[in-house]
Amino acid sequence: MSAFLLLWREALLDALRRKLVAAIAAASLLSLLMLNQCAGCAPVPTVNGVAQDPGNTAAFVGIALMIVVGLWVVTLAGLLASDHHAQTLEDGHATTALARPVRRHEFALARLAGALSVGLGAGLLLLGATSFWLTTRNGLPAEPAALAVLACFLSCITVAAFAMAASLALPRLAIWLLVLGLVFITSLASGVSLLAPAESVPTLLSAIDRFGPPIASAMLRALAPWVPGASLPADFAAVFARSLVWAVLGLASLAAAFRKIELR
Amino acid sequence: MNLLELRNVTKGYGGRLALDGVSFELAEGSALGLLGPNGAGKTTALRLLLGFAAPSRGEVRLRGRDPRDPEARRGVGFLPERVSLPERARVASAVRLSAGLAGMRGADRDAAVAEMLDYVGLGERTGDRIGDLSKGLRQRVGFAMALIGRPALLLLDEPTSGLDPLGIRDARGWIQRARDEGAAVLVSSHGLSEIERTCDRVAILHDGQLAASGAIAEVVRENESLEDAFVRLVGE
Q1: B52 and A1 in contact by Cβ < 8 A?
Q2: Which residues from chain B sit within 8 angstroms of residue A17, using beta carbons?
Q3: A139 and A132 in contact (C-beta within 8 Å)?
Q4: pLDDT at residue A185 is higher than 90
C-alpha cells in the first residue's frame, strides 16, 4: 500500500470518528425519507383549467430535486474539508507523518480524499436514491442523472479543495462562510443567467456564470434531457470541461498552499 | 559520513532570529545532545532538519540531501516534544501507520508493531484510544512510532517529557539500544543528566547562537560538570 493510500485510510477513519459525521448520517437518513416522498409525488397541474403534461411536471420536479440535493452535497463536502487538514497542523499530528518519507502534496491530498470520501459517500447515497426513485417511478432516463452525479462530484472536489487550501490561512468560521457564499453565488449566477434576459443580468453574475465553477449549471445542463423533447445542451461539454478545470485548479491550489506552509 | 548537518544556518520569524549562523553536524553512529534554555532555537533546528521549515540563510542537509526531499527522511525516526495524535485513534493503528510510512508492509509490519508495543510497555494497551492515555503513555506511543522500522537516525525532542522515573529509565534504555544497533541519535533536551548518559557530543544553543559544540569532554572543563559548563556558557 502506498503512503498515499495509508494516509487516505487514516484520514477517512479520522473523518468517520468525528461527531459531525454522525450528524450528517442522521441528516442524510431524514433527507432520504423526505426525498422518497418528493420523488414519489406526481402532480398534474392545470393552467386556466387545462391539465398540463405530467411528463413536464415530473421533469421539472426531478431537476429541482436533484439540484437541491446536489447543492447540499457540495456544501457538505466543503464543510467537511474545511478543517480536516488544518486540524492536523494545529495539533501537530501532521508532523508525525511528514517526518517520514512522505511528500507534502501526498499528505494534503490524502486528507482531502479522506474528507471527500465521507462527503461523496453521502452524496452517492442521496443522489443515487433520488435518481433511482425518479427514474423508476416517473420513467425519467437514467443517463442524465448519472452525468449530474458526476458533475456534482467534480464540484465537490473543487469546493472541498479550495476550502482545505483556504483553511491553511483562515479560521474555520470564515471557511464555512466562504463555502456557503461560493455555492450560493454560483447558483444565483446560474439561475439568473438562465431565467433573465441576457442584457438584464448584472455583469458580475454573468462573469461568474461564464467563468466560475459551474456548480449548479453543470448539473442543470446534464439533467436537461429529462424535459420531454430536449437533449443535452450544445455547451454541455464546455461546461463539464470547465468543471473539470476548476477541480484540477482546486487540487493544485491545495498542493501549492501546503508546500509553502511552515509546520510548527 | 555526516547524517545531518547545519552549515551557518540562520532562521528568522518576523524580526526575531530563532537561529543565527548555527553550524553543527552528526556523524554515523554518534549521539549529539542539543542543549539550550527555552527559546534557544533547539526545536527550530529540528524543524529545519525535518524540512518542516526552510532556513532564511545557510544550508541544512539530512542524510546528504535537502530535508524537504522526502528521500532524505527515509530511515529517520522522529519523536516530537508533544506527541499529538487523533484522540479517537487506537494505539496499535497509530504505530501501524508509522510503520507503513516507514516502508513496512503486511505481516512483517504487524509483527513489528506488536513487538514494538511490547518493547515500550504498551503490549496490553494496543486497543486503547489515544485520548484515554496519560501523557507518559502517549510518550511511549511516540517512542514506538519513532523507533519502529529501526531507523538509522533518531531525532528526539524532549524524549523524557511526561515520563515517570521508571519511564525515564526505560527511555534511556531504548535510546541506548538504538545506538547499540548502529543508529545515530540527536537528543534535544533540557535534561542535562539525560544528555550526559545518552550522548557523546553536545551542541549548546543560546539566544539562537551556538555557544559551544564538541565532545562532552571538550566542552566541560576540568572539575566541572555538564551543568556547570551549561550555566557558564549560557551566562546565567
Answers
A1: no
A2: 86, 88-89
A3: no
A4: yes
